[in-house]
Amino acid sequence: MDKVKKNFGFGCMRLPMNGEEVDLEQTKKMVDTFIEQGFNYFDTAHGYIQGKSEKALKECLTSRYPRDKYILADKLTANFFKKEEDIRPLFESQLEICGVDYFDFYLMHAQGAGNYAHFKECHAYETAFELKKEGKVRHVGISFHDKPEVLEQILTEYPEVEVVQIQFNYVDYDDPAVQSRACYEVCRKHNKPVIVMEPVKGGNLVNLPEDAKAVLDELYGGSPASYAIRFAAGFPGMMMVLSGMSSMEQMNDNLSYMKDFQPLNEAELAAVKKVQEIFKSKNLIPCTACRYCIDGCPKHISIPDLFAIMNTKQIYHDWNADYYYNVVHTAPGRKASDCLKCGKCEKVCPQHLQIRNLLEDVAKEFEH
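The structure assignment produced for this chain is given below.
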């Protein structure tokens, strides 16, 4: 782990896009800038951007740089293996797609009560530890979305796990659904380094409500993202904060304050506390737009976009949200009211949202 140069990583779940395809030229420029500025940690998974993230990394990173120039983290995702025998072929295919001989970090993906049993039944952890012995993985970890009791169980049953990736940001810190603080405390108790995902909560802490933005604007001119990322990185034991950057502008902003990282000072922490209170008062849908829910939806409803529009309406009360609902993000048979209530989306939602009920609320708001 001492090869990790800085405490800030390039999350490759939201790469820049040209229509349906990854914008490879812009991604190459972003990779180059990231490495030039002294950073080296890249995080991907087999299902990111419908399988295009790993391929883009081969094109933009691994085929262009010597292996010691970057740290690559990949993940084992539940819906890509049905039995133990599926895991190794999947792993080998991931190595091949990424164009590497080993992964620096290999994480059991999106662990929680819903899929942990599947990983155990298929001896996924044991397989990963064997791959480590064989030198094909340097460090085995987990990415985690559930309650602290489940994390406690996993780390007790598999003490060999070396790192834990959790969702952690100032809005989720004390949120009863996500329980970032409590999960972080379990990691500290077990002495596991922490990797932070969703430090800006899928962009929600960048595009702030006006009253929240005004609080941060009174500080010293840092971007809203800078306060969110520095908040997460400032806790003891935070090995890495990931940011899913999708433009050069975001990259340059992030690197400007993470190059010589300083934790938030007292005035900044007080301002963030005020923003936390404003968010609590808004009653917004805490969706991070990870888009896991869309793949299995039989009606192909663009659930995260509909939730984002609902939040926009709550914050700004403007007609624009109605336009986006009716013209941009819905099509015949794909409105909120077309939900079949099959529940597939709720099974894979890392935020454990009651999506079916929330879609009813969205339909009431926009389809009257």
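Interim note for the steering committee: The beta strands are 8-11, 17-18, 21-22, 41-43, 71-76, 103-111, 137-144, 163-167, 194-197, 238-243. Residues 19 and 81 are 29 Å apart (CA to CA).
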